[in-house]
Amino acid sequence: MRSSKFDTTNLLCGLLFIGLGLFFAIQSLTLDLGTAFRMGPGYFPLILACALIQFGGIILVQSLRIEGEAIGHIAWRGMLFILPAPIFFGLTVRGLGFVPAIFLAALIASFASSKMKPLTALVLSFCLTIFSILVFSYGLGLPFRRFGPWLGF
Amino acid sequence: MDFFSNLALGFATASSIENLFFCLIGVLLGTLIGVLPGIGATATIAMLLPITFQLEPVSSLIMLSGIYYGAQYGGSTTAILINMPGESSSAVTAIDGYQMARKGRAGAALSIAALGSFFAGTVATFLVAIFAPPLTAIALQFGAAEYFSLMVVGLVSSIALAHGSIIKALAMVSLGLLLGLVGTDIYTGTPRFTLGIREYSDGLNFVAVAVGVFGIAEILRNLESEKTRSLLMAKVSGLLPTKDDFRQMIAPVLRGTVIGSALGILPGGGAILASFASYTVEKRMSKNPEEFGHGAIAGVAGPESANNAGAQTSFIPLLTLGIPANPVMALMIGAMIIQGIVPGPNVATEQPALFWGIIASMWIGNLMLVVLNLPLIGLWVKLLTIPYYVLFPIIMAFCSIGVYSVNSNVYDLFAVAFFGFIGYVLVKLRCEPAPLLLGFVLGPLLEENLRRAMILARGDPSTFLTRPISATLLLIAAAVLLVVLLPSVRKKREAVFQEED
């Protein structure tokens, strides 16, 4: 790996904090700031956002001085399958209903690991669905529709 | 005696069949997930939090506390058996506990940890019962300025105890506070930072943020390198410690309890500090310090007791002031708010059954851990052999169901994915998530009290310094910040955290 003259991790970290700080600062400015006596909705967030930008700046400056270790391995495959699982569940739980939504969400999440075999994933998701129906739907009585309107019953 | 009648009320509440049942479930679930490596107490509670929302407030909080001790206990089990602490506070246990296990004394190490924890838990429960009421009385005198300053102390301490760079921790707190402000402004009703999404006008869902930042980020991190864990599947035999072991563990347990109880009250994650402090003390006091690192009994007994005592007494600031001492307590505050209880000094007077019930259930929970877990250790050991790739789809499914069940708000699930991503990115950039979560919980409270204090003082910021309690608190905060920034302390602090990793 090429050794860089700066700490990449902290460089990115500083930039991220500055970016987030700017986002909140700009948003705050569109709100009523008020005075120190009667603070408006934008007053405190603006202070915090400025602090965040400052901290980001310090991290950024520090990163230029020292060489740092690399970020290391990133779980791309993990992100690709784990993060969509709750989103998919959210998009389908009303339409498809609880049972298919949880089955498919578990199935998606299963593939985040390179060790998972398709058949194991199917069996696992199936057992998990049965268990969830028993515990959450019947046991705890959560008000979910088990099968939604998209399926026609 | 008020004290005894209060405790009696507490035990009456906590020992109703229903609450005993939920306490048991909590302890078992907590241990179950705490045993699974790589998932600490905070992540465990974040994931199981939604399950408790369907319950009565008392039962729900009792179950959550049970999950907390259970997870902690599970964490020490893995620390001893496979040298993989479930969370940072049991990292110290791994040093000597694992060595004991390698010498074939895993059973003894586990029971020493359990018995030490139980003793410490018993003492700490009484301490909570004794000290909570007077502190509540003081807290009732607090005005907006005092609350503001107190929260500043809490946030600063969380920075001091976070791993790694202090500047990063400061940035994380600011970010957490900002995220906490998302939603409708309480004074004017203006929506803030919602990006025009109406579903976020009540603020970001606390459970979604916690599950994302702690749970999902943790899963992603574990998926980075899927090594097979090399298990020391030492046969766990000879559970009972010998007489000699008992003699050796008494003094460390007592010292650990004292250290842990004192440090646990400190806002900002006292339990971790407590186990480190206890280990250092034991090493200094020991007649043969060379034993440490090679399976010293005191090296398991002391830190485990300190850890558990600290875990209990960290409920004191939560119950009396409504200020969380660590991320777990922040989760408890979130749970209380969702249950419609405003955390703070009024809980003790308005809901005595809840207040004392929780305290009593702490002791019951600890007792259950000892009685149940020692015989069940074999089962927990078996659990360690479940491959990780089977576990996380299960965790993901439960997280999704759990988060959705809180408000039936689909946008909360999107927030989970988003905060899982953000949490993972921040972990990769070596930022500790604990200060962020603490900031997130305290954000709205901090702003509300700041604004109220400023209105009361007619816009004069010196009010924070002219009111004695507030001034003292701010001085403490400034002192803590100064101390951690001092170069010499900084080096030591880095050394401590290095050891931990």
UniProtKB/TrEMBL annotation, chain A:
Residues 12-144 form the DUF1468 domain. The keyword Ribonucleoprotein does not apply. Keywords: Membrane, Transmembrane, Transmembrane helix. The chain crosses the membrane at residues 12-31, 43-62, 74-91, 97-114, 121-141. The keyword Metal-binding does not apply. It comes from the Bacteria. Signal peptide: none annotated. This is Membrane protein. The lineage of its organism: Bacteria, Pseudomonadati, Pseudomonadota, Alphaproteobacteria, Hyphomicrobiales.
Automatic annotation (TrEMBL), chain B:
Residues 20-438 form the DUF112 domain. It comes from the Bacteria. The keyword Transmembrane applies. Keywords: Membrane, Transmembrane, Transmembrane helix. The chain crosses the membrane at residues 20-53, 108-132, 138-162, 169-188, 203-223, 253-279, 315-342, 354-380, 386-403, 410-427, 469-489. This is DUF112 domain-containing protein. It comes from Pseudorhizobium pelagicum.
